[in-house]
Amino acid sequence: MSERFDRPLLSAALLVFTLLLPAYGARLSSSVSTRKLSVGDRVRLEVNLITAKNTAITPPATEEGFGNIIVKEWNVHKSEREKSDSSTYEYILTTYTPEPCTIPSLTFVLEHEGTTDTLHTDSIPMQIISILPSDTVDLMGLKPPLKAGKAPRWWIWLLGITAAIIALVVGGMYLAKRLRKVPPPPPPVPPYEEAIDALASLGVKKYLQRGLVREYVFELSEIFKRYVGRRFSCNAVEFTTEEMIAWSGAADLPKKQRASIEWFFRASDPVKFARMIPDTTTIDRFEPEVRDFLETTKPVVEQENAPGDAAEAATGNATEPPSPTAEKEKRG
Hints:
- By secondary structure, the chain is α+β, with helices and mostly antiparallel strands.
- Helices cover 44% and strands 18% of the residues.
- A hairpin with a 2-residue loop joins strand 8 and strand 9.
């Protein structure tokens, strides 16, 4: 079914689903831009859901693709209606397997007021179109013609000249490297500054505005672990939640900082590994909890000399001003 014919039908279906939603619950429909493609071509799959207000949707994982179908990118567009919400998931798909394949049935998990529902799309068979002309002849069995007579000798000279040029280039590069002093690499960015920059980059991606809560929590957790590992010289990136909490106790951190670590990783584990969508209060607390930990653990740069000490050093052996008592005795 082509995209030109899909959209009017899809719009009509969405209208009917919206009218029937209060009586029959969530509705799902899907369409694909084309069912025929060549290897490497891209097709667009759209999945539309009409759900009750404030329904949390967990889409299928895309990291491993959909069978032989590779997911190049995907986005979600949401709009609110008077009595329902509309969500459109758009997937850009391709395949590199030159044989018929199928877009499998995709699973969407809905959570609303303590109730969980699961919707599935229909599987869509795809036809792979060969890019070779129909009259192409298989040339695998043909062999090149044999040459008779004595082989020419010019290739020996060419091989010798090429080897000499390569030797000169390699030798010149080696000598240049020995003669040129390589400047030392720049010092690494301090852990606190690197973490602050990473949080700023995370904000630019706008995961939460796009409904990608799991991706947001994953990246925020990596920033947190990376900072702890660099700041306290431990392998925090590889720690599990229990190992991280045990480490915070062994590292003799203050109670508030240990509580931040325990709350963050216990609250983020269900989001990362069970695909749970937490409430808004928990989501809004994730980043402030990390920032508070950064601020309370960042190294304090100590000054070598206080301003008053520097002034005394500059005056040398200057005498101190007389005390008020001495001044009174002098006037008397």
